[in-house]
Amino acid sequence: MNKKLNYKKFSLKVNLTVWYIIILLLVLIFFSSILYLYLEEQLKQEVKNILELEIENIKEEIKRFDNSNNNYLNSIINNKNIKTVFYSKQGDLKTEILKDDSILKIIPKNINKKNDFKILKYQDNKWALMVRPFYLSSKPEEKAGYIMMLYSLAKEESMLKKLLLILIIMIPITLILASGGGYFLANRALKAIDIISTTAEKISQSNLSRRISNSKNREDEIGRLIKTLNNLFDRLESSFYRQKQFNADVSHELRTPISVIKAQVDEALDEDELTSEQKNILLTIKKQIAQMNNLISQMLILAKADENNFELDKEEFDLNIVVDTVIEEMNNLALEKNILISKEIIVNDDFKIKADLSLITQLLLNIFDNAIKYTQTNGKIKITLNKLDNYYKLNIIDNGIGIAKENLTNIFKRFYRVDKSRSREYGGTGLGLSICNWIVNTHGGEIKVNSSLEEGSKFTILLPKN
Questions:
Q1: Which strands make up the sheet holding 143-152, listed edge to edge?
Q2: Do 113 and 93 form a contact (C-beta atoms < 8 A)?
Q3: Which of 226, 377, 380, 424 is most buried (CB neighbours < 10 A)?
Q4: What is the pLDDT of residues 241-267, one digit of tens each?
Q5: Domain 314-464 falls in which CATH fold?
Q6: What DSSP element (H or E) covers 162?
């Protein structure tokens, strides 16, 4: 089954060039046809004028002779291009005065139209035929017969064929040259749009200050488009900056009251006179304070991530030691669910890396915290550490609840939760994996996940050595 051609998949330059070529082709065919038909008609009219003139000359000569003087009629010159034939006044062919019998195959033996001009085709040649009456000087008012003159159109046909051949050759050549010129002009006209597109792609939340240049001070449609887009980016930058500043300010302002509330709750829990119900309420408050404090800390990290001039505090350390430290710190949380954390080193070597120690530690803490939260009791978590040419490769594998394939592309987005009710139950904020993605990308690395429901998840992290 033939598929319909989808022209939208081609670039605008190609589409414009193709439409230009199609329109040009139609125009060339139209004007070539007009030229050919016009020249054909002009040649036909020229031949008609020639025959008219020749017949008039013959008629003037015939008037000097008697009708019975066939010697003169036989003396009429017949050459390769022009043949002369005589008919009686009744329209019958006078074969006895024919000088060239070969034309009998072309001309009629009897003529009905006594004043005629037409084109005949015989074999591969065309002949122009003209019939006119002639008179003798002795009887100037009485028709003596009819002259038929034939003109070979071989020369004219050859000229038309050459013209047709030239048109057939020149039209494709013209189209090829025009397609190159059309593509060049389309490319030049749309170059500004390419620049706009390239610049717009480079504008991100961390680089909203960039603008599309209008160095030529264009005031046409492209210039107005650039101005409109730059105004849009101005509004976006202003709005994003206010939002970013608000998040940072709120996070900072909340840390103090949260700390005060936590201290008050801890002090209240030390009281001996608390009832069981009061103690449970305070423990619930303390848990929610911990979650709020975690959310504020993560929001402060993201506020730092949104800074355009953020610089990594790089130092050299052993990645293997950091992994051991994080495992030791997360073991207490894992033991609450009887989860076993194991480590495997693929290549026995040191794992010296130059990176931001605090951020790498935060990255591993977030990944392990996420794995423990979504792994069932008596589950397993395994981390493998491998050395590649220019990268260190970490795999964190669990046999937890897993993630559906349709959600895998969204888990690194801010505040995204696969199951919001279960995420709140586990104390999740929806920011942990987003922070992990930012930390890895900031270091020039890569993070990806493979997962299936009820089969667990595998996070793969590539970190450059330097």
A1: 82-87, 143-152, 125-135, 116-122
A2: no
A3: 226
A4: 776 676 666 666 777 787 888 888 888
A5: Heat Shock Protein 90 (3.30.565)
A6: helix 154-202
